[in-house]
Amino acid sequence: MSLHGKIIFRTDGNINIGIGRIIRCAALAEMLRENFECVLAIRQPDPAVLQFTSNAFHQIISLSSSDELDADELIPHLAEGDIVVLDGYRFQFAYQQKLISKNVVVSIDDLHHGEFCSSVIINPSEGVLPSDYRGTGETRFYLGSRYALLRKEFIQCAIENRILPSERKAIISMGAGDVHQLTKKVLSSLVKSEMVDEIEIIVSNFYPDINSLQEFIRAEKRVKILLCKNLGTQEICEVMKSARTMICPSNNTLLEAASIGMQ
Length: 263
Fold this sequence. Notes:
Layout: E1 6-11, H1 20-32, E2 37-43, H2 47-50, E3 59-63, H3 70-74, E4 83-87, H4 93-100, E5 104-108, E6 120-123, E7 140-143, H5 152-159, E8 169-172, H6 182-193, E9 198-203, H7 210-219, E10 224-229, H8 233-241, E11 245-247, H9 252-259
Parallel strand pairs: 1-2, 1-4, 2-3, 4-5, 5-6, 6-7, 8-9, 8-11, 9-10
């Protein structure tokens, strides 16, 4: 099948800032890759991070670490008419302006803060209106959870009939890096609440203090706690389906959990 053009996804992710943006860009690329050449442009890519892209991209472009030169470094990789998808707080008006004259610019946005000159804005948050944005008047808006960028495994789960599991089980997933080590704090509070009898914790290889977490789990006798490490997308989906309740950040993980009916 011939491809209809090129889409360059410009985003970043690592243990410090998380990988949620990479995952949702990969989810969008997965939807489009049969019709477009999908390219990821990322600063200093870590192979451990790229494993989360599920081979959604046809090519990876490695950029330098300079904020000031970022857009100028990206431009030589673009042909006129290419689509550029920007996902990150720092890709603001000045960055968009450097690209918009020759390219279609799509901003994936969570904050509706500042001015935009993008051709398209995608914000999967509920309660956001086009009037909340300062755009060009020609910007097209795709707002609300109907435009959530879900991985294909979660889309499939969302359309399947689901048998409601026990209310006494909960899932904790605080992000791949969890640099603030919220997982253990949430776990401790949930155990003390006595609201559940079983907890599954989802972490990645980036988790900063796995030994301390494992010690806590071994010491807990009343609640059954299972540590799930470095799961694939389908495995994460199956873990989520096994419970009604999940504690997670208000990011794409929340949208994925909501898509399969979690509370």
